[in-house]
Specification:
about 290 residues; alpha/beta; Rossmann fold; 2 domains; seven-stranded mixed beta sheet; two-stranded antiparallel ribbon; 8 helices; globular
């Protein structure tokens, strides 16, 4: 979707401007092999798998999923919660989305997890690391009555995802804004398909998606993807903290140095513009044998 089209998007429901961040293509590339294997486990193909993304930002999800081979995607600019109330949501095989993060009065993530639990269908949700320590998520992962276990697992990326704010949908001075307000990764509920997915991951998946990690429990998450309120998050030793501080200081210094070089280069260029050289001045001497 072009930036001109983005500017004319009007959402028929209340929105928070800070929620307007579209998922980067790399995130879809990371999850695509898992999604394809899930389709195979369900007796589907990439072309026939019905994917539902209930949250509409600028409509980029269809393009991203089409680019990795998934053509049957439902993502419309409609009020998801009215759709739930009227039970007019589409028939789908898997829910895949990056929900808005706003809490009160929207509570998007909590309401989405409740919907997923009611449906009992596989989902792949990209959301902040703090979600797994919330009470509503812990309750979601527990078996409820006759409903099957969620079969949750997590897929963490090799690098922190950066998100794009579509032009015109947020108060930014010029164009789109790249942002990464939270550490995010994929929260997955596979239900009866989890065992086959884990087996596939151990045999082939981890080679197809280099750098990504699959974890069956939040306790096994890499430290950098653990929430600061997680008591299982290991504390850094003194030497590790000092080493981390040195790396951060070095990175800041390198950034400042590059900025200084750029500034110096511009200043030097300005000093030499229009300069008249006297006879005998040789700014570019030729080497003689």
């Amino acid at each position: 979707m072009t930036s001109q089209q983005e500017q004319f998007i009007k959402h028929p429901f209340k929105v928070e401007s800070t929620d307007h961040c579209e998922t980067p293509n790399v995130a879809y590339s990371d999850i695509a092999p898992v999604l394809e294997q899930l389709a195979i486990s369900m007796g589907k193909t990439k072309e026939t798998l019905k994917i539902y993304d209930p949250y509409f930002c600028a409509g980029g999800v269809k393009d991203h999923l089409n680019s990795v081979g998934f053509a049957n995607v439902y993502n419309k600019c409609e009020d998801f919660y009215k759709v739930i109330a009227s039970k007019s949501y589409p028939d789908f095989d898997v829910l895949l989305t990056n929900p808005p993060y706003s809490t009160k009065p929207f509570d998007h993530i909590e309401r989405l997890m409740n919907f997923c639990q009611d449906q009992g269908k596989p989902y792949l949700i990209l959301q902040p690391c703090y979600v797994y320590v919330k009470d509503y998520y812990k309750a979601h992962c527990q078996p409820l009555g006759n409903k099957p276990a969620v079969g949750e697992f997590y897929l963490t990326p090799s690098q922190r995802y950066m998100y794009r704010t579509p032009t015109g949908l947020r108060d930014v001075k010029a164009g789109a804004l790249s942002t990464s307000p939270f550490v995010t990764f994929w929260f997955c509920g596979a239900y009866q398909y989890r065992d086959s997915l884990v087996k596939w991951w151990c045999e082939k998946g981890k080679l197809i998606v280099p750098g990504c990690n699959l974890r069956l429990t939040s306790r096994k998450l890499p430290r950098k993807y653990k929430d600061s309120n997680d008591p299982t998050r290991p504390r850094l030793r003194k030497k590790q903290r000092e080493a981390l501080k040195r790396r951060q200081t070095k990175a800041i210094a390198a950034t400042s140095k590059r900025g200084a070089k750029r500034a110096f280069g511009i200043a030097a260029k300005k000093r030499t513009v229009g300069r008249k050289f006297n006879r005998g001045d040789t700014p570019h001497r030729k080497r003689t044998a």
